[in-house]
Predict the structure.
Amino acid sequence: MTLAANISFGLLVLAASLAVVRLVRGPSLADRIVATDLLITILVLGLAVEAARTNSGAFLSVMLVVAVLGFLGTTTVARFIERRGA
């Protein structure tokens, strides 16, 4: 399980670094918002891998809170973008 967790963490770090590149270089505000949402998703996935690695359910409630806050933040910004463009 340790090897799989290490590989998963490595791939998540790679994905997060690519998302940060999109966050910095994104040509539009919508691209930056999608990159931020992706970073939040990667954070939740990292918590899931850690929960599986340690065989602990303590991370599950943290994952739920982070996912809900990320969803609420993304929908709020999407509404802001929609109203600004109209």
